[in-house]
Each structure stands twice: as C-alpha cells, then as structure tokens.
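Readers of this paper often ask what the protein records in our data store actually look like. This encoding replaces a full spatial description with a residue-level series of whole-number codes. For reference, a complete record is included directly beneath this paragraph.
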Amino acid sequence: MSTSQHKIGSGFGARSTAGEVLSGIDLSGKVAVVTGGYSGLGLETTRALANAGAHVVVPARRPADAEAALAGIPGTEVGELDLADLTSVEAFARGFLGTRRPIDLLIANAGIMAAPERRVGSGWESHFAICHLGHHALVNRLWPALKAADGARVVTVSSAGHHSSPMRWDDVQFERGYDRWLAYGQAKTANVLFAVRLDTLGAEYGIRAFSLHPGAILTPLQRHLRQEEMVERGWIDEHGDLADPSFKSPEQGAATQVWAATSPLLDGMGGLYCEDCDVAEVAAEEGELVGVRPYAIDAGEAARLWELSENHTA
C-alpha cells in the first residue's frame, strides 16, 4: 500500500472544472492520447487538453462519430481502436508508433458500466476486457512512445464503484454466475491496481501512473440503465431531470483526470488514487464510498493482476 495515499491540498475540489484545473498550464507541444475522448467525460477531457495547447489523439471504436463530436475542437485527431479486440489494439499502436511521436499523457478513459453479460475477445467478461485488459494491452504496446516522452503520465479512470468488489481471483471472468454491478466493481478495482503496478514498473523511465474517481455524473456511461432504475436510485426524477445535487457536471467530472495528468503538484509521485482533484485518503470504513479501498492499492494484488493480464494479452 502506498504510504503517500493522503490529500496534498491541491487548492481544487469537487466543483472545480477541467478548464479551471488547467488555468495557467501550457501544454503546447505535448501529445495526449484519450481513449473514449469523444463522449461524456472523455469529450470534456479532450476539449480541456486541446484548449491548453495539447495535440489530442482520440482512439475510437466509432471513428465517424468521434470525427463529428470533435469537429469544433482544433488540435485533435481520431484513430480507430476497439479495446475489446487485441488485433485492433495492435493495429492502432503500430500505426501510432510509426509516427515516431512521444506520448506525454495517456488517459485511459473509455469504459462501460452495469452492462448485460457479454463475452468478448477470448471469452472475456466485457467490463474486465474493455475497462482493463484492452487498456493494459494498449499501454504496453505504446510503451516506446511513453518512454520517449520527457516524463509521461498514464491516468486510468476508475470509480468509487471499486468499493463493491475486490479482484475475484477464483472467478475473474464471471463464469459461475454474472452480476453486472460486481463485474463493474471488479473492473474498476483493476483500473486502480493497474496504475499501482504500472507506476512501479515505469518510474525508472519517468513514466508515472495515477487512477481516480471522477465523481457521479450523468453521461452516456449510464446507457445500460433503465430510467426507472435511475429514478429508484435517486439520480433523476420521473421526467429524466437530475435529482441528486451531489452529481457533477461533465466539466467538473473531467477535472480530476485532467488534474492527475497535468498537475505539477504530483511531480515525483505516482501509483496514487485521486478524487475531487486531490489525492484521496484510504477508505476508513467499509460501506463508505469515499477514498480508496486498501485492496485496490495493494502492491501484491497489483503484481498478480499484471501477470494475469500479460497472460491474457500477450
């Protein structure tokens, strides 16, 4: 467990926006890769980074949709990538490496939540495959471009959903009964563990990694939830309007990942889980969806997941 997993007093908070976090930060000449960077939080992240001067590459499963969404944002380009397909990951990485550009920032933003049971790749459970395994493969295949940067950062978008499940080592792929929320929770735990192990392996090359909870936000991520289910949870009212005042706007929701990717306060640090534009504390009690659960930042668990992921994606 990281001994640095404590708030550092960033000066920002839950209501800070991505634009505010980047105020005064010049990303001119920097190259960023943002998976899912054309919808929801990803789109706001892309917009904020581009407005700060970065050139943002957006790998997309639906390139035409991405081109349309990014049409008004200068300094962006779209590539084709399906995180559930290792052949697609390999093709994207090969194409990018062929440009001989470094990657200064890589934000693993794409994901799914509470989806019906679906098998992808070699029979992988879809949350684990898309949220974690695809990003594991992508980062490893783009390693030369990350090493070529002058201090790269990799940021994985996790969630407070990680509180609902540690790694299910006896049934990672949910072959003995499926639960969509536990599948999401395990995948979000995997996102945190991935950053822990990546930071350990990458620090000597100047590659630092972070994970985060963006907050609760209404975005296309909820596409697999029925309206009545969200009403029951108190997220929206019967008219479909936001009912929970704790929810963030997309601009606020994108702030923590932008902060983790760029803040000079994090120089020399890594392997940390962040929330509300600061390093999070370790969760004090089970059941509170604040902070990070100890099992998600356990170095042994992180190494075990890395080995499993390598075996799946090699």
